[in-house]
Every structure is written in C-alpha cells, then in structure tokens.
Amino acid sequence: MSEALDPNPGSSKSFVALAKPFSPEDEAVLRESLKRCSPSTFEAAVQYRKTGNPEHVPAVVIGIIERFVEPDLRTKLKDADDDLRVVEDLGVDSLTMMEIVILVEEVLQVSINNDELRNLRTVGDVKTFIDCKIRGLPLPKPTKFLPIEHIGAIMPVQPPFLFLNEASVSSTAANGKYKITGQEFFLQGHFKDNPVMPASIMLEALGQLAVLYLLEGAPTEPGKIVGPNTIFFTGCEGVRAHRICRPGDLLSLSIKPKRMKMPLATFEGSIRVGQEKTVIAEEITMTFGFVDAPAPAAAAPAPASPPIPAPAPAGGSGPLNAALGGA
Amino acid sequence: MPRVFITGLGFVTSIGNDAASVASSLRELRHGFELYPPFQKPDIPCKVVGTVKGFTANSTDPEDWTWPSRYAIKRETLRSMAPHGLYAHCAFLQAVEDARLGPGEVSNPETGLNAASGGSPFLTHYNHERLLKLGVMRCSPMGIVSSIVGTLNFNLVAAFRIQGSSCGFSSACASSAHAIGFAFDDISLGRQKRMFVVGAEDGNVDAIMPFAGMRTLSLQTDPALASRPFDAARDGFVGTGGATVMVLESEDEVARRGVRPYAEVLGWGQASDGYNVAISHPDGAGLALAMRNALRAARVAPEQVDHINAHATSTLIGDIAEARALRAVFPQAAERPGISSTKALTGHGLSLAGVMESAFCALAMREGFTPGSAHISRVDPQCEGLKILRETVPQAPGIVMKNSSGFGGANVALLFRKV
Lengths: 327, 419
Fold this sequence. Notes:
The complex is a heterodimer.
Chain A: H1 9-13, H2 16-19, H3 24-33, H4 39-51, H5 57-68, H6 74-78, H7 94-108, H8 114-117, H9 123-135, E1 144-147, H10 148-154, E2 166-169, E3 174-179, H11 199-216, E4 224-226, E5 232-241, E6 250-261, E7 264-273, E8 276-287, E9 290-292, H12 319-324
Antiparallel strand pairs in A: 1-2, 2-3, 3-6, 4-9, 5-8, 6-7, 7-8
Helix pairs in contact in A: 4-5, 5-7, 5-9
Chain B: E1 4-12, H1 19-27, E2 33-35, E3 48-50, H2 75-78, H3 83-98, H4 103-106, E4 111-116, H5 121-134, H6 151-159, E5 166-169, H7 175-188, E6 194-201, H8 205-208, E7 239-240, E8 242-250, H9 251-257, E9 263-272, H10 285-297, E10 307-309, H11 316-329, E11 338-340, H12 343-346, H13 353-367, E12 387-388, E13 399-406, E14 410-418
Parallel strand pairs in B: 3-7, 4-5, 4-6, 10-11, 10-13, 11-12
Antiparallel strand pairs in B: 1-8, 1-9, 2-3, 6-8, 9-14, 13-14
C-alpha cells in the first residue's frame, strides 16, 4: 500500500543534485548512461542535475522509457496521455521495467524501493511517482483499474445511463473510456437519421467519472467514506465541444480535481477521441457528503479488495513479481 | 528403439560461419587462428586465439554488438545474452533453416534443447565489478541470466519458445558431447522427437586467460604452429569460442519430413577417470572405457570404425593419454581407424568442442571426405602406433567416433554412421 511512504528521507527531501555541484565528469558519465536516449532527454537530465528543478523530470523519465520501448511502439509515447499503460500498451515487460528504473535511479540519483514499483502501471503513475520522489512528497495512492462490473457495482448511476466502460482512478486524477455503440436509446432521436452523441451526455460522462473519483480516489476523513447517494451536480463552467461524436467513436475521458472542500468538489475535465480534442470543461462542480464507513466484516475470509484485472504479462501481477519469480 | 539422425547444423566458428565455409576449411586444413589483439601485451604470455569473425561482441553492453545482417535479433532478446549467446542464436537460426524446420517444429512439447557453455566470465566479471562499485541495486536485472553457466539454455529456450525438455551440461570440455549423448537418449527412449544440441563459448580474454595459469595454453606466436595435436613440438592448446547447433531427429520425423540427414547417431558411452581434478589419467583409462562403452552400446566392433575425431587438444599430457587409450581399444590401431584432431584448425572450444567437432564429422561424412590432422611435422613418439591422418582423405568414413574429455576426468565417446 502507498501508506508505506519512503522511509528514506535523506535521499528525497534534499535535492541531491544540488548538494553536490555537477562536474564535467558527472556530465560525461551522464552522457554515457543516456547514450541511447534522445538528445533532449540528455539535455533535460543535465538541466535537472544542474538546477534540481523538478520540471525537467518528466522529460527525462519519458525519454528513458522511450529508449526501452521497441521502435515501432515509440510513436505511442510521442503524444502519450498519462493513462498509457506501460505493460499493456508499450510492451514493456517486468525486466524492462527494472532496466528503466535502474537508469532513472542512476540519472536522477534517487533510490526506488521494490515495493514502490508494484503500483506503477501507467506513464502517468511513473511520472507522478518520480515527481513525488524528487520533491520529497508522500507517494500517491496506487492507480486502481476498474472494469465495467466494478464500476456498475459502486456507482449510484446505472445502465442505460452509465457512460463508462472502464476507468482508472488515482488520488490525482481519473481516466475512463466509453465506446459509443450506436445502441444508446437517445441516439434514435438525436438526431433523426443522424446519430450524434449529445454534448450534454458527454458532460454527463465526465460528471460520472468525477463521481467515481469521489468514491474511489478522493481523500476522506478517518472512519468516513463519500456516500454514493450524497453526490449531485451543482454547476459547470467553460464547456466547449470541438468534435462531433458518432457511433464507433471511443471517448477517452479524464478529470482532475482542482479544489475539494466539503461539500463541494471542483474538477477540470476533457474528452478526446484518439488524439483529437473533443470536449473541454474548465470546471465541473459536484456536491458530496461523508457517511460512516461500513464496519469491516470481521468473519469475511478475504477482504473485499477490488478485483483488479491483472493481465499478468510475464507471470505475475506487478512488474517486480515477474522479475523476481521463477529464479 | 527409434534411430536418431543429424538433420541440421549451424556454425559460428573460427573456421567459418556456415556449413559451406566450415567444410572447405576442414577439407583444405585451413586454420582460424590470429594473433588476438587483446593478448598482444607484454604481461600476457599467450598470443594466438581461434577468433570468431564477422561479429563484434567485446562490449559489456549487448546493444554495442554487431553481427551479420542476415540475423534479426530484437533488443529484448539480445539484452540477456552473453557474447556466446549471440553466436549460438545465430547458429541456431542457421540450423533451423538447414534442417528446414517450421516454427511449429521448433516450438512444441516434443522438441527439446540441450546446451553447454562455461557461462560468461566476461559478464560475471563486469557485473561483480559494478556490484562492488555501485551497489547491488544498480546491477542489471539481466546480470545473472546473461552470465552464469546455463545462460545459453535460458536464452535459447526462451527465444525459440522451446517446450520440450531442456537442460544445461557442465562437464567442462566434455559438456556438449554429454549434451549430444543425452539428447540421443531422449529421442531413442521416445521422450522427444527432436533435440537441438548447442555448444558455445565466449572465447574472449576472460574465458581463455585463466587457462594460462594452468600452463595449458600454447605460447607459440605463429598462428600456423600454435595448435598441433600429436606433434612432438606441441606446447599447449589454443583457445577458441563461437557456437555450433546440431539438430537431432527420430527416424519417424526424418521420414515424415522427407529430409536428407547428415549422418546417423549410433550411440554413445561415457566413463570417468577417477584420478585427478584437472590432469588426464596417464593411460587414458576413463577415455578407453568410454570408447568401449560406446562401441558396446552401438553394437559396433572396433574394426568397423573408420575414423576418429580425437579430443587431442595439443597439450603435452592429454594427447599422450588419448593415444594410449586408442591403442588399447583398437587392436589394429596402426592400420585403422584413421585419426585426426580438428583442434589443429579451430583450437580448443572447451564446452563447445564436443558438438562442434561432432558437427565437423557429420559435415565431412556428407561432403565425402575425412579431414586430416594439421600442423604435424613430426609425430610425438609417444603417439606412434596410430594411423594419424596427416592429410585430408577424399573419402567419407563409414563409421566415425568422436572423443571428448573434460576436467574431473569426464570422458565421452560418440559414434556416427554415414547415411
């Protein structure tokens, strides 16, 4: 679990890079380490090592991941959104993940524990994780992947008015997908002989993702949970639709919390189809309330942990399991 | 018991990187030695190595390596290899092509793989140095699988999706002969239909240099004189690396696929000296017993054997021990069989030697010649009473024995028949 925060404050609190001047020898070592990465990766690493400015870190991390991805899959990384999955989408196996980590450790001069690696599923996870390490911030909760069954089980909204097929929720964002099938009841009338996904429904889908975030990702008070029946829409601002969506389109939805203070939570949201900008909502605000957390079922043999779908690439659920398995 | 045939060969050796060039080197007794650049230093006493050509694998980073462009190897396959893994991967691709095997014939529950190498001291050295310098968590996760003994089978089994039996053999210079013997058993016992047998060695500084400490390496500076088994002036062996892959198949598979085999494997035998950790028994007692065991298992009389590819490495003690064993086993040794050591051309391939030289035998049987024992100007008097072939004979032998001996006094004899 993520509560096991880095017990090694020495390496993360102070910027190691700043503690020691960046010498020409260091630069030569860095150049050798990054010799198969793009020049911009090397440049970002030099800047980071010289200034300790964490803004350079994402470019370094993405550059290192890119170097280990098979050339024909690298284009995916070019315009990657944060929910691009390292194993499933980039073909990175658990051993390659270790190679990536070792190089990141070397270049950014951080230490990464085995436990911390298990939850890094997406490019966003990796970026957030490294960023937290560098800044000495607590590590985020691991991203949860929710298949449709799980979404259906926890959401107050239900079919035929549920517009999420799958979702991932972390403490900083939620991402989801919805494929317009053409069977949606409202498409019969919207419009006559011309099915177009209503913009209001797309906004609704973003709202549903925000509900999912409140239920699964949002911080709560001890002993409390967000009550599914306490969440309602209150308002939205700056909504723009850029693209007409029709049956067959796959909507990639994402929301990020901007402000959260009981009883209001405000998110920014966006929808893409492929790489095309589709809908932007600068602010979506919901109201919510806490209820008592249900008492843990004492006799339950197995804790009702969410059924995380583990495609188990190379014989293990997390990257490291496979790396360590079968010795 | 199903009969077992050799149906495919692949070579990355000091005397050629394909069957055709290896065959012509063997026929014309053309050696593969060079003054090895890393050895040309005052503090390194030996100078000559049987070098692998057309590859560079002298970096600890596999992505720096180069190999002939006809072999496509992905980074994820390459990253866990030792240099000899690269050689073996390429030889494997050759053998598959040579045997005309489709992907389903390589990867299925009845096709296995036996491999032999001494591991990669080169990468072990590098990884341990890194471990001591930077700490264990900065070592490559591939460090172990790319370097320990077994790296060859780990990598090939994974890369070629082998589903049948797989095993690594570690009896030093008898390793890949053992690998053939047990592969033969697996097929003749009906456990497998097809076996790949692989031998490979890095053949670089870290693999060869340690033998200098045993005083077993030739100090000759003339590549044409350094390796001369059975010669009175021999002064030690010359190291070599590379890889050989041999495909063995049951007679049913040969018939079903309609391929023309190189030769039949008739059987094998093994025995141990029980004498010294590194020195051959002075009379070659274990080797003589291994030869007798092989003859009995294959139901072949000593008089029927036409040719012996000897283990003879060009060391002082080893060649004499083998000569004594040969005289003991073959009553008509002065007339037949004709004996040669192809290590005069390649040098000693250590764990690679057994399968490489067995493949030479198979190739020569198919191509219709018997390679001679090169570089002899005067036969060591202690090796007399044997019919040592000084030149290539332009006829294929009918039955060939291949001898191999390793540290600890492990001895293997294999028998092949022309088809």
